[in-house]
Amino acid sequence: MSAVLEIRNLHVSVEDTDILRGVDLTVKQGEIHALMGPNGSGKSTLAHALMGHPNYEITDGEVVFKGEDMLELGPDERSRKGLFLAFQYPVAIPGVTVANFLRTAINSRRKAEDSEDKGIPIPEFRKLLKDKMSSLDMSHDVAGRYLNDGFSGGEKKRAEILQLATLEPDVAVLDETDSGLDIDALKIVAEGVNKLVGPGLGVLVITHYQRLLSYIVPEHVHVMYEGKIVESGGPDLALKLEELGYEWIRSAHS
Ligand SMILES: Nc1ncnc2c1ncn2[C@@H]1O[C@H](COP(=O)(O)OP(=O)(O)OP(=O)(O)O)[C@@H](O)[C@H]1O
Ligand SMILES: [Mg+2]
């Protein structure tokens, strides 16, 4: 059965302010969804709430992943279960190389599946990493650098896509900002996602950058406004937003 991430009537508040006010969204393995919406509409709040960030209080609703109540699981367990979350502002981890970070993550997933697992043998891991980097046309030097430490915007995006490729999650939520990301970095994300999508991967791409969606073509497009999904449609919805902006959304839903 394919893995499904189901968000139902999700309400989230930050410091006693209601930000998400009833979000419903279902992402299945093999589907690409885009979540768009103006600045401050609550897109990143949704990503943080899905991760289980302690500042984001779930006041109502539920999130079910692979048939299990995901809100009962800690951030690590969510990731081990096959949910991948990439953030608008990724943190640097000085002292931990990209390779070590990935090996630790792979091993913790393996251990979750089999408590006897001794971890991926180093030669096998090296080969896996090399293969993934080659398939993404990525310079192999990245593996030895400290994760996100001094990385350019484009390098952070490459590291994010490499994580996605090696961890092979069932569903990935990618929060992509437009600010600070040049078009090349957006293309890296788009090409990476396009290479990785298939029946085994469901993706929710968060952006308000229409241009990203000319490279990644989502089958489903949703618009968030004031903490709710107010429009859902196909790729034509993204085109309409490009043409008309968000003004019609504001006048229809204020
Ligand atoms: N940690 C926080 N503390 C206080 N307010 C917050 C916090 N996180 C989010 N908010 C508020 O929640 C609202 C939604 O913010 P959010 O970052 O989710 O928007 P967004 O849709 O991701 O915007 P953007 O397109 O600019 O990335 C904003 O009004 C923001 O100020
Ligand atoms: Mg955001």
Proper CATH architecture: 3-Layer(aba) Sandwich
Helix content: 25-40%
Q: How is the main sheet built?
A: 6 strands, mixed
How many β-strands, per DSSP? 12
Topology:
Elements: E1 4-14, E2 17-28, E3 32-36, H1 43-51, E4 56-65, E5 68-69, H2 75-80, E6 83-86, E7 93-97, H3 98-113, H4 122-135, E8 146-147, H5 153-167, E9 171-175, H6 183-196, E10 202-206, H7 212-215, E11 220-225, E12 228-233, H8 235-244, H9 247-253
Parallel strand pairs: 3-10, 3-11, 6-9, 9-10
Antiparallel strand pairs: 1-2, 1-4, 4-5, 7-8, 11-12
Adenosine-5'-triphosphate is lined by residues 14-15, 19, 37, 39-45, 55, 177, 208.
Give an overview of the whole structure:
With 254 residues, the chain is α/β, with parallel strands linked by helices. The chain has one domain (4-253): Rossmann fold, CATH 3.40.50. The chain has 9 helices and 12 strands. The strands form 3 sheets. A 6-stranded mixed sheet has the order 6-9-10-3-11-12, with helices on both faces. A 4-stranded antiparallel sheet has the order 2-1-4-5. β9 (171-175), α6 (183-196) and β10 form a beta-alpha-beta unit. α3 (98-113) runs parallel beside α5 (153-167) and α5 (153-167) packs parallel to α6 (183-196). The longest helix is centred in the middle third of the chain and has 16 residues, at 98-113.
